[in-house]
Amino acid sequence: MLLLHTLLLILAATVPLTAHGQSYPSRPIRIIIPFPPGNTLDTMTRLIIPKLSERLGQNVIVDNRTGASGMLGLQLGADAPRDGYTLVGGQGGTLIVAPQTYKNVPYDSIRDFAPIALSTTNYMGLVIHPRVPFKSMQDLIAYAKANPGKLSFGTGGQFTVPHLAIELLRIKTGFTYLQVPYRGTTEAVTALMGGQIDAVVSSMANLATYVQSNKLRVLAVTSLTRAPQFPNVPAISETVPGYESSAGWFGYLAPAGTPPDIVRLLNREINRTMVLPDVKEKLNSIGLTVVTESPEYFAQQIKSDYEKVGKLIRDMGFHAQ
């Protein structure tokens, strides 16, 4: 009987997952990316889909759907059939910040999605132009306090994740600064290299090349702990206790109501793809740290970040417009 029981367990583990009477997946899977090609989320997805397609036995297709600062793609993902054949790529700006800074956002980040896999984190760094005399975060904060409004930070726009990281630092330290908004973080970094502004907060994935070539100098990362790829760069929390700005992260979601067994299968296969040596090495080379946690972990990350960012926005005295 024990042998029979063991054989039955093995057989059950090898039976294909079924959905609506068919093995899943039985046709191509589409991943909506709410940004244009070349975006970090797009780059990550195009890197993993050949391996993911092999693992799933079906083609996985990237579908770039831009518009409304990424909210259009999220809406399409939330409204898709709940059958596991349409997924959507998510990140903090569209899932966490936008619903709390815009009115009439067409999706609810908590209720309208089934989180599948939080796949990578993207640490942010505070960088300065080499001509700026600060040697540490202590120097920057002391200068900003002694010279109200003179320290200039370039941002990719109001209420972007980097802008919120600067605002959190302002609230915790009491300094004031001059925000210089650009049409995107890339423009802000270009202005910083040209010496037009003093500092920028941006993803380390975007900054690594400039830091390594000494065109920019990184003072600290905005996460609670140091970034694994940059162990010699301190965290702001080492100077400002308790400071933690959400690291940028990227992951995949399905519409709420997608069968849990499909969610778990996708979580397992995405996680296994992310840790393949060649995939992980390439992701690390662009500043991304691989994460292989459960759907529940991802759901809790979204909820926690939503609450933290909501409090920060309220502390700033802002109301959704």
What is the succession of H and E elements? Answer: HEEEHEHEHEEHEHEHEHEEHHEH
Mean pLDDT: 89
**Shape assignment:** globular
**What's the number of extended β-strand segments?**
13
Give the CA-CA distance, first to last residue. Answer: 66 Å
Annotated CATH topology of the largest domain: D-Maltodextrin-Binding Protein, domain 2
Q: Which residues sit in consecutive blocks of at least 5 with pLDDT less than 50?
A: 1-16
The level 1 CATH classification of the largest domain is: Alpha Beta
Strand order of the largest sheet: 4-3-5-12-6-13
The biggest beta sheet, please?
Answer: 6 strands, mixed
Any idea what the radius of gyration is?
A: 21 Å
CATH superfamily of the largest domain: Bordetella uptake gene, domain 1
Q: Which percent band covers the strand fraction?
A: 15-25%
Oligomer: single chain
The helix-and-strand class reads alpha/beta
